[in-house]
Automatic annotation (TrEMBL), chain A:
The name this protein goes by in its record: Aspartate carbamoyltransferase regulatory chain
GO biological process: 'de novo' pyrimidine nucleobase biosynthetic process; pyrimidine nucleotide biosynthetic process
UniProt GO cellular component terms: aspartate carbamoyltransferase complex
Cofactor dependency: Zn(2+)
Organism: Buchnera aphidicola (Acyrthosiphon lactucae)
Name of encoding gene: pyrI
UniProtKB/TrEMBL annotation, chain B:
InterPro entries the record matches: Asp/Orn_carbamoyltranf_P-bd, Asp/Orn_carbamoylTrfase, Asp/Orn_carbamoylTrfase_sf, Asp_carbamoyltransf, Asp_carbamoyltransf_Asp/Orn-bd
Name recorded for this polypeptide: Aspartate carbamoyltransferase
Gene: pyrB
Native source species: Buchnera aphidicola (Acyrthosiphon lactucae)
Positions of the Aspartate/ornithine carbamoyltransferase Asp/Orn-binding domain: 156-303
Aspartate/ornithine carbamoyltransferase carbamoyl-P binding domain ranges (all copies): 8-148
Swiss-Prot/TrEMBL keywords: Pyrimidine biosynthesis, Transferase
Amino acid sequence: MEINKLQVEAIKSGSVIDHIPAHIGFKLLSLFRFTETEKRITIGLNLPSKKLGKKDIIKIENTFLSDDQINQLAIYAPHATVNYINEYNLVGKVFPTLPEKIDKILICPNSNCVSNNNLITSSFIFKKDQFSNMNLKCKYCEKEFSKNIVLSYQ
Amino acid sequence: MRNSLYKKNIISINDLRRNELELVLNKSAMLKKKPQPHLLKNKIIASCFFEASTRTRLSFETAIYRLGASIVGFSDGNNISLEKKGETLADTISVISSYVDAIIMRHPQEGSARLAAEFSNKTPIFNAGDGANQHPTQTLLDLFTIKETQNRLTHLNIAIVGDLKYGRTVHSLTQALAKFKNNKFYFISPDALKMPNYINNMLDKKEIYWKRYINIEEIISEIDILYMTRIQKERLDSTEYANAKSKFVLHTETLKNARSNLKILHPLPRIDEIDRDVDYTPYAWYFKQAANGIYARQAILSLVLIEKHL
Ligand SMILES: [Zn+2]
């Protein structure tokens, strides 16, 4: 089974986020606050990948990501795969799909937006513009930004 | 008509459906014709102005008193203990909401009214302006005035002049009028202050006619409503500003080919974008428009606070 051949130490049970674009892995760790748990986490950076050339990988022991978390991965790592491992066996494979909304992890680029000034969580909904570009609309200030602007604003 | 506005927060004009807008306009007309000084007797409403806005505050407070309700509150956030003690907006609203039946709120930050609604424990929030974002009761009074002067909100030719880029009232007004059939929009502004794309895209999506024009003369004979706004000097460089003054200031001569039903509106305060001579023409309607703010605000307050209206 492919899982056993990975270049990062196998885990007995938990989640493996694979096919993260190189250099994004570290960002995901902080954005999704994975490091704030007591769980054992193994990361691999710049590993060779057939699909991506280079990729990052994150393994979190004894943790199964929620559907929300998995879907939120889609904006940073659209080709990521989340593998669930039990007793060293692959027991499930999930592919993130872009969620309708994304809470907490992004910051609104509008500096006068209340979400930047009150230590509250942010909230965006995804909207397609007339050119089918993905935009993010802030629930609070109602401003719409292109996805890349919001992602680079961290 | 069922009152779907009962207990609703009034945060953004985009949250209101067309039939809800109509409900407010009908109620405004009724209250203008027949005042109801006891309609909100025993209600207490908080008027929380975290930034000063005398006109809007007085309009709301008059509306409240004319319905027999009482007011508590403050008129300038800089001078209140809440701000000085560093309490968060969320905590402030959460506390005030336990005292009153509704909260009118003005705040300099965009999205603050939406945030407040999340912490108000179902006490309705009325957004009286959140930064450059929304000011829904302004739009309601604009709609009420348009309907009152033209007898309809459909099949209208509306010219909007001035700062179309930063003017939140014109964004909301366009969004609201786009909910009604067969309206045409004529946008007149300096290049640097064009209507933002998201508004143009919304109109395109709904297949609503809109076009940019260079000056008011070009279209004066075709329009029913001329909505003027102020251009702030600091938004333009000096040449652009000089240019804007020649093209985007309204004089009585500009009105010589106007339709007889034309009405000129302006959210006020005006600086010099409407010549004072225009005030004496039958087209000038901005002061009556401001007066209508009382009825529109009475209407929305009473619909949110009282479920059944006879
Ligand atoms: Zn925002």
